Amino acid sequence: GQAIDRYRHARPASERIFNDATLVLPGGNTRSVLFFAPFPPAMVRGEGCWLWDADGHRYLDALGEFTAGLYGHSEPAIRAAIAEALEDGLSLSSHTAREGALAREVQRRFPAMELLRFTNSGTEANLMALASACAHTGRRKVLVFKGGYHGGVLAFAGGGSPVNVPHEWIVARYNDLADVLQRVAPHRGELAAILVEPMLGSGGCIPGEVDFLHGLRMLADECGALLVFDEVMTSRLSFGGRQALLGIRPDMTTLGKYFGGGLSFGAFGGGADVMQRYDPRHSGALQHAGTFNNNVLTMAAGLAGLTQVLTAEALDALNARGEALRARLNALLAERGVAMQFTGLGSLMQMQSLAGPLRSADDLAAGDDRARALVFFELLARGVFMARRGFMALSLPFDEAACDRFAQALEEVVSAQQA
Ligand code: PLP
Q1: What Pfam families does UniProt report for this protein, alphabetically (predicted)?
Q2: Are 279 and 195 members of one domain?
Q3: What DSSP string runs through 38-91?
Q4: Which residues pair with 343 in a beta bridge?
Q5: Number of domains observed in the structure of the chain
Q6: Of 278, 309, 340, at which residue does a domain stop?
Q7: pLDDT (tens digit, 0 to 9) for every residue of the chain, 419 residues total?
Q8: How much helix, strand and coil, in percent to the nearest 5, is found in the chain?
Q9: Which atom number of ligand 1 is nearest to the Cα of residue 264?
Q10: Ligand 1 pocket, residue 230 CB under 6 Å
Q11: Which of 266, 284, 309 marks a domain boundary?
């Protein structure tokens, strides 16, 4: 209560912007995930790993645009590439050299994507991957996991959503092969795809266990279904994503977020046998159009990011910083006897309001969201920004000093609550 009152009183401009927007936008914006009561801060500027709101507060940005902000705000090489592309015009009604160059850079990182195509979002990439799997197999059923998130119309928190696309879903427990086998058994010959995040992202940064993910690979082979890895979030965990770390070759992979250099992006791809179907030189080719699939600015920004900024070393160092920060935060919480923890892998993490092992979305049900809300608002008051649900994605400029600052802020919050 008090923390929220202080939050509100310190942000009259954000409140006004929110109230004005609600007259035409239900909930004040068009991304459900951004809303929290009483209203989210309206950000006006970003630089490096810092954000400023309309009320003049500065925040350490630990959210990193839900992983799309990997490069940080206003990365100079990306800005320059956008400015250069802008000089030559935006909408060229044509393919361009940058499109092929960006695709080659993606393919070099994800060799299982023998052929790929671009979309405007991770959601679309997943929709296209499922459409591809259904077309390729001539089947309709899709295995997904409770707590999985693959886009606004492909969301399985609580088991599903009324606005989901009407596929024939089979929803199983994450990290539970016995549950998977039991649910799939009556439908083995009808399974088109297994769509899985190698780590539940939105569903709580719960890593897929190695045996579980290998088990899905085997199941897909046995059933003749396509294994689709949604690496929209986990692609940043190594140069070749989590599939490289696990040594698993999925039939299809979907990407999004930072690959567009901070602009709208998605990609789906996989084995040539599946993806050749989109080649219009073949008779009966599948259609996949989209005015902005190859938009000039995304192609330029994505290419600059991958070729000029995101070396394998920079990525590994960032993930190591994330590992170290998570260990430090968890040590602090354990030492103080606070029933919270940070889960995740590398630079991706989630503040959980319960201690103990977490293996699937169901395990989160016992968490106390009031405890998490309190920490969230107290961190905001100390100039630290994360998602209201506790999600964090570190950016390249989020350096050791930023990690120190974050850890200090959390320590202050814990100390104040225990005083
Ligand atoms: N897949 C995963 C794992 C995601 O985390 C997200 C977005 O958060 C998406 C897909 C959807 O991507 P987009 O928001 O670009 O549509």
Answers
A1: Aminotran_3
A2: yes
A3: S----EEEEEBTEEEETTS-EEEE-STGGGTTTT-BT-HHHHHHHHHHHHT-S-
A4: 350
A5: 2
A6: 309
A7: 888 999 999 999 999 999 999 999 999 999 999 999 999 999 999 999 999 999 999 999 999 999 999 999 999 999 999 999 999 999 899 999 999 999 999 999 999 999 999 999 999 999 999 999 999 999 999 999 999 999 999 999 988 999 999 999 999 999 999 999 999 999 999 999 999 999 999 999 999 999 999 999 999 999 999 999 999 999 999 999 999 999 999 999 999 999 999 999 999 999 999 999 999 999 999 999 999 999 999 999 999 999 999 999 999 999 999 999 999 999 999 999 999 999 999 999 999 999 999 999 999 999 988 999 999 999 999 999 999 999 999 999 999 999 999 999 999 999 999 98
A8: 45, 15, 35
A9: 15
A10: yes
A11: 309
Which is it for the CA torsion 99, 237, 202, 29, positive or negative?
negative
* Domain ranges, residue 371: 2-70+312-418
Count the Cβ atoms, other than its own, within 10 Å of residue 155.
20
- Cβ of 202 less than 6 Å from ligand 1: yes
CATH code, 55:
3.90.1150.10
207 Cβ below 6 A of ligand 1? no
Assess whether the previous peptide bond of 38 is cis (omega < 30° from 0).
yes
Exposed/middle/buried for 410, CB within 10 Å: 0-12, 13-18, 19+? Answer: buried
Can you give the pTM of this predicted structure? 0.98
CATH assignment of the domain containing 256: 3.40.640.10
For residues 50 and 126, state if they share a domain: no
Q: Same domain, yes or no, for 296 and 382?
A: no
Find out whether 405 and 325 touch, Cβ atoms under 8 Å.
no
CA–centroid distance, residue 10 to ligand 1 (Å): 32
Q: Ligand 1 pocket test: which of 205, 232, 292, 348 has the largest number of ligand atoms within 8 Å of its C-beta?
A: 232
CA 106 from centroid of its chain's CA atoms:
17
- Inter-residue contact 156 to 189 (CB < 8 Å): no
Q: Which two tokens stand for residue 263?
A: 């602009």
| Interval between CA 262 and ligand 1 midpoint (Å) | 14
